[in-house]
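Let's sit down with a protein and look at its sequence and fold side by side. Which protein we use is up to you, so please pick one and set it down. Label the sequence line and the structure token line clearly, so we can match residues to local backbone shapes. Go ahead whenever you are ready, and we will take it from there:

***
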Amino acid sequence: MSIEETPPPVIDTSEALAYVVLRPGETRDVARLDAHADEAVRPYAAEVLRHLAGQWAPPPEPPAPRLLTTVVTVIAFTDSARLDCCDEDTAYVWVRVTAWSPRRAFLTGAAPFVEAFGWKAPDLVGTRFLAELDLDNPPGNSDTAGERLEWSGLRVAPPIPAEWLEAGR
């Protein structure tokens, strides 16, 4: 006996508070749905169905951040900041990531910039770096803990040719 010839099972729903029966439809991509829930249990039944749906078809993983190379400019140096109780850095830089915001600066530890540049922290001011950053998700305006930002792929940017600098004047 084929599946099409098999009679549907008999289900006694007389005592059921809620039920959902899903049967094959007339074509492969269609299903027949028979569902019922007593008024008092509908919110609970809906929650159970959402839970089952999450188990049967969990939501997809969020997409990985789209990291793009962008310019990070050191605009100031300070050695008098302490960002939190666990802060071990002794030097900090204010940096601007124009792709995130042309008006906002971020206070962050100078160590990764010193490591990429090879000189002392005060000498970093005015230096442009390149970093792989998630430009679609910049830190929010309430995020003041800039030292927690990661500067993946941080390296000194190549110099801008003088004729390009003069062309903008």
